[in-house]
Amino acid sequence: SMGVLSPALSPRLRVTAVALLLCLCLCRHASAFNSTAGHTSTSTWSPPALVASSQCSTPFSQTSTLMSIYDSTDGEHWKHNGNWGQGDPCQNSWYGVRCEANPALPSTCDVTKVELYSNELSGTIPSLSGLTNLRELNLHNNELSGTIPSLSGLTNLYYLDLSSNELSGTIPSLSGLTNLQKLSLPNNTLSGTIPSLSGLT
Q: What's this model's pTM, rounded to 2 decimal places?
C-alpha cells in the first residue's frame, strides 16, 4: 500500500519505511548500485566520453543553478570546492561536476552529474530546475536541512541520493521522472505520504 505512513511510527521508522518502499518500487531493473567507502553511484548507464573542455561551453541556466547550490549550501566551507565559481563549470572542471557534449548543439556542454557526497554541505537545496539534463545527483552524508525541492522537469534524472542528511517535510512528486531508477532517502526526518509511482517506467 502507498497510503499515509502510520503516525505511531517514529520519524526514523517512517523514513526507513519510505526508503524500503521506494527501493522496492524503483530498483526493479537490473541496475547495480553498490555502497562503497566513498558511497559513489554505480549504474548500468554509461555516459559518453567527456569532450575536451575547450570544445564546448555550459548554458548560463545550468551554471546559475550550480552557483545557487554553492551559495545555498555554504560552498565556501565545503571540504572540497575546487574551481567552483571560476569560469565555465565544464571547461574548468568544477569539483564533483561532470558534463557531456549536447549532440544537438555541439558547442554546448550539459551538466549531467553532480556528486558532492560527504563534502560538508550545510543549508538548503535550492531549485534544481535549471539542470534539465541532470542524470545523477549524489548529496549523501552532508548536513542539508529543509525540504526536498521540486523535481519536476528533471526528466533525465536516473539516480538521486539525498540520504544521511537532515531533510524534513514530504517527498515531492515523482511524476514525469520516467528515467528514475534509484532514489535513496534514508536517515532523514521525512514524513507524509509516498508520492505516486505510476508514471515511472
A: 0.75
